[in-house]
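Possible regression after last week's pipeline update?

I re-ran a chain I had predicted before the update to compare outputs. Posting the input and the new output here so someone can diff against the archived version. Not blocking, just want to make sure nothing changed silently.
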Amino acid sequence: MMALERQRKIVELVNDTGSVKVTDLSRLFHVTPETARRDLDLLATQGKLCRSHGGAIRMETESQDIPYTERESMNSQQKMEVAEKAASYVEAGDIIALDASSSAWYLARALPEVELTVITNSIPVIQELGKNNRIQAICTGGILRVTSMSFVGPLVEEALSKYHVNKTFVSCKGIDVTAGISESNELQAVIKRKMVSIADKTYLLADHTKFGVRSLVHTFNLSDIDIVVSDSEVSPEIIDVLLQSGIRVE
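New output (post-update):
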């Protein structure tokens, strides 16, 4: 089978199943694992799939995400409250990471006027940071995902792996005491995991609507979080349960 035909079939397989492994491709197409990896690397650079550890995952269609402009206006009062609380944890000289959530954008607006370094994969966040000349803003680059106005893919992971941050601030689609933290989009989940892995402390930005929710992709565990920053509408019962699990809620 010619390389182009094999690569076309790989894309079809990823789109049909959601993910593939190098070992499976090697057996299916009778090629070496090295050849399978090169195929995946090429297809990832073409934006036809996204590389993951040991294989690749589907590039989800844009319709599967709520457009960024809509997310920005959802629960805006609660998100502003969360952002103001989260900003109080940011100190002069901090190096922080912000994800591509609308909550991170609200936090970017609320950051204090002090010397900071901020790393993000979000275009709206980087634009907001550009208004503050005391912030050194670093954008990861990567494959542009128009709906979320963010960069995704292996280039984001590669960029993040070169940095160490004091604090990571990420949001999520759901928090479940048993299942942990979840996200609706696997591409974003991978990036959030990476941001958590390079940080000394992780702050989860979550208004009260996120609690008791399980979304599509398990992102990380409650034990990976240092502080949950929420709004005043989160129930005392939920706070007690999280405290019993050793999770501080502000």
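Follow-up from reviewer: compared with the archived run. Residues 3-59 form a domain with the Arc Repressor Mutant, subunit A fold (CATH 1.10.10.10). Marking as no regression found.
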